[in-house]
Design the sequence.
């Protein structure tokens, strides 16, 4: 070992230990002998010398038992079983009714249970003990056990220790590592002349170079092979990072983002999309209808168009759904169940303007919370409206998106949705299996014609949380919203 590479604390500690080659030095002795007050300095110096083979380090683990909150209270006020037994012993008529009047309810029940386990019986509402002396001895041992704390595990009665481990909040254990050091023959061979402390330079500054003091300076050695600690810097939540990634992909593909309100009418949320007014998804068990506002204004001419489409199909050649159309149902206020409600309103306001739009935003449905469902989640929505838009363009767009997300294997299957024809389900290959991630299709004439939309509209929607589970390798959707800092810190940067 080259002594010149030793740090000043290591030199001081080694020089001190050379004064007694046979001694095993405790931490307190090292601190005193080196005139240090910081334990970390002593431990660090000992570690450095040990790694260099100059000293030998000995470690021992000691477990100490201390009183916790309930234990401290019992030490001050007496054990619950002791207070109840004292009352029973001094009472002329120790019955349950009298005890309940003398003690709080939260004490009476547990206290009686503790007494029963050490020989106190309760028959016909009256307390008795076959061996009162034994009861008193057990209580006395328990009280003595608490009064002797803190103490090491080895010094305590194992039976008493197990008893209080089973009583919540009475005791707690603390592990302490004790270190001692002894100089090795290699450490003794180092000349004391080489252990003179010098000013160590850890940074080359302009001032140091200009003064030329660097010529006589001793530079601190750094081990560049050591692993560095992981920096705990601020970072985006995985969900927000994923949203930004999706935004960037759509923007790169030439799309514009659409951001609109959560609160909508049943008319735009469902009627505009040719969803029947008696569809099960409209029921209270699926949709969050609002008390305020319970009703929202809609233009009569728009509702008349929807009514005609729903009842007889309008001028589209469709026969519609038949039955009657209720404007009152259309005007109901709700929390949007999908982001398509905002897309269709945009198209209604811009019926002839070719566009490529996307949305990544929250939607709401009355779902029971489990590993795959949440009542509030995010939907990824996209549309293309332009002359000549067709099914092949839709499939190519979806495959391009998922390929950019890292899923090159994509397939589509026929499906059914009330507002698209043809309709598709989108699946990606994940862990060797096909997983459905959303729906897509071309808006039906029943959706586009009442609003004066002149070009074909390609549309798709998918759940962001399900995609996040794929990207992050999760099996439970709830993990995305748990405030587990360690899990969040260890997530890969998306």
Sequence:
């Amino acid at each position: 070992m080259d002594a010149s590479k030793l740090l000043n604390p290591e030199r001081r500690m080694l020089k001190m230990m050379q004064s007694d080659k046979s001694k095993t030095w405790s931490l307190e002795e090292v601190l005193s002998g080196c005139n240090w007050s910081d334990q970390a300095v002593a431990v660090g110096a000992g570690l450095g010398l040990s790694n260099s083979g100059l000293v030998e380090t000995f470690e021992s683990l000691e477990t100490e038992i201390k009183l916790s909150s309930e234990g401290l209270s019992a030490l001050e006020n007496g054990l619950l079983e002791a207070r109840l037994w004292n009352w029973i012993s001094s009472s002329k008529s120790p019955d349950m009714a009298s005890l309940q009047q003398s003690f709080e309810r939260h004490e009476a029940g547990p206290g009686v249970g503790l007494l029963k386990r050490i020989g106190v019986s309760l028959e016909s509402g009256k307390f008795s003990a076959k061996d009162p002396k034994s009861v008193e001895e057990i209580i006395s041992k328990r009280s003595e056990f608490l009064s002797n704390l803190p103490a090491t595990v080895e010094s305590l009665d194992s039976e008493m220790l197990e008893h209080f481990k089973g009583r919540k909040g009475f005791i707690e254990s603390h592990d302490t590592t004790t270190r001692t050091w002894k100089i090795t023959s290699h450490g003794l061979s180092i000349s004391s002349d080489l252990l003179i402390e010098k000013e160590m330079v850890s940074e080359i500054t302009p001032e140091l170079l200009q003064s030329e003091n660097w010529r006589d300076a001793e530079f601190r050695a750094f081990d560049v092979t050591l692993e560095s600690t992981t920096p705990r810097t601020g970072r985006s939540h995985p969900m927000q990072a994923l949203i930004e990634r999706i935004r960037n992909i759509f923007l790169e593909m030439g799309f514009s983002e659409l951001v609109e309100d959560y609160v909508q009418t049943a008319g735009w949320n469902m009627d505009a999309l040719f969803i029947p007014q008696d569809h099960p998804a409209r029921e209270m068990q699926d949709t969050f209808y609002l008390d305020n506002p319970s009703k929202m204004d809609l233009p009569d001419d728009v509702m008349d168009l929807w009514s005609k489409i729903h009842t007889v199909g309008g001028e589209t050649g469709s026969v519609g759904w038949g039955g009657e159309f209720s404007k009152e149902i259309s005007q109901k206020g709700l929390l949007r169940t999908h982001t398509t409600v905002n897309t269709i309103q945009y198209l209604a306001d811009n019926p002839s303007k070719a566009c490529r739009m996307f949305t990544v935003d929250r939607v709401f449905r009355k779902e029971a919370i489990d590993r795959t469902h949440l009542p509030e989640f995010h939907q990824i929505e996209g549309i293309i409206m332009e002359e000549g838009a067709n099914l092949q363009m839709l499939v190519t767009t979806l495959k391009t998106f998922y390929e950019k997300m890292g899923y090159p294997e994509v397939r589509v299957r026929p499906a059914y949705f009330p507002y698209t024809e043809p309709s598709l389900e989108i699946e990606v290959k994940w862990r060797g299996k096909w997983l459905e991630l959303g729906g897509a299709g071309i808006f039906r004439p029943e959706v586009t014609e009442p609003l004066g939309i002149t070009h074909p509209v390609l549309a798709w929607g998918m759940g962001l949380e399900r995609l996040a589970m794929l990207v992050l390798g999760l099996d439970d959707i709830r993990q995305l919203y748990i405030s587990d800092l360690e899990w969040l810190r260890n997530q890969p940067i998306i």
About this structure: Residues 271 and 306 are 6 Å apart (CA to CA). The first strand starts at residue 25 and ends at 26. The chain has a mean pLDDT of 88. The chain has three domains: 3-65+176-219, 69-147, 241-489.
